[in-house]
Amino acid sequence: MCGLALTHVEELGPPIAELARVLRPGGTLVTTDMHPVAVATGGQAYFTTGDGSRLMARNHVHWPSAYADSFRTAGLTIDRLEELFVEQTDLEQMATPEMREAARSLLGLPLVIAWRVRKLPG
Fold first, then answer.
1. Dihedral over Cα of 97, 102, 106, 108: its sign
2. Alpha helices in 45-108 (DSSP H)
């Protein structure tokens, strides 16, 4: 499992090659990331530090073809691709009415991309 991490690397090849290396033959890898449309339109990963300040981790745009090429080069086969979209229920969970209103334009846009790949038995 690799969750919401690959968007933070400039090149997909090396980390995907390492994931493939440690995956047993016949094993499955599930990876999720910010959807490239979300990243290309300014989506960022924010987090709160121990002292309460907020920081941002840089995201890099990786189009689906870059993932597919990196998986293929690493000897992985794609079993499934899922795209998760911003829904009204996502907006309702935001902390303030101002945040909900600001995010309303995101309704229906892709937010997360998820891949299930496997390493062929060898």
1. positive
2. 64-73, 88-92, 97-103
pTM: 0.85
Closest CA to 14 of 101, 73, 57, 91: 73
Sign of the C-alpha dihedral, residues 4, 103, 86, 76?
negative
The letter for the amino acid at 106 is L
Report the distance separating Cα 13 and Cα 83, nearest Å.
Answer: 21
In residues, how long is the chain?
122
What pLDDT, on a 0 to 100 scale, did the predictor assign at position 43? 80
Residue 46 has pLDDT above 80, yes or no: no
Question: Which of 58, 65, 56 is CA-nearest to residue 12?
Answer: 65
Which domains are assigned to the chain? 2-119 (3.40.50.150)
* Residue 122: DSSP 8-state: -
Task: For residue 25, give the 3-state DSSP assignment.
Answer: coil
pLDDT for 98:
87
In the chain, how long is the greatest CA-to-CA distance?
Answer: 54
